[in-house]
Structures are given as C-alpha cells and as structure tokens.
Amino acid sequence: MAEFTWNHTTLHARSIDPKITYLQTFFLTLEQVEQMYHYFWDEVMIHLEFMRVGVKAIPAGLQLVRYTSAERLKEIIRYHEEHGALIANPHTYILESAGRF
Predict the structure, then answer these.
(1) Which of 61, 62, 73, 93 is buried deepest, with most CB atoms within 10 A?
(2) Is the model's pTM score more than 0.85?
C-alpha cells in the first residue's frame, strides 16, 4: 500500500514520462474537482488524496500535468485559482509563491 500513498503515484508516472510534472492542489469541494476534470480532461490528470482540516475532509490533488511550456503551466495554475482551488506551487523557489496552508 505504501507505493500508492502520498506522491508515490507522481514519482512512478514521472519515471515513465519525464515530461510529466505535477501541481499540489487543495480543493474546497468535490464540485471543483469535477469542474477541473472536465475542463482539462487528459492534460491534467487528477490524483486525489484526502486531508483532514479541522473536522472536515478535503480533497487534495497531486495532479499530473502534461508539461508543454511555462506559460501553459501558469495558465493552468491561474484557472485553478480563479475557480477557488488553492495551489501550493512546487515550481518556484520563492516560499511565498508556493502557498502555505
């Protein structure tokens, strides 16, 4: 079971296809997950885990992204944020840009 827990899926996918990257995403509702799934279809593959925040379980995604360009990755992040998802950006060296939850 350890191979299918937090971030191991991402590591396995990246070992097969080095053009895959990922985003750490915190969704506030399952409706947000469904919206992202339909909008990005196979460009952003959603891998969900659930985290307890207070008394609530929220979906957290280590989404696999088919990387094409830095500009496209920024667009994907912006779309998520505009629709209420929180991104902890693993593609920055600036801590304030990475997000703190």
Answers:
(1) 61
(2) no
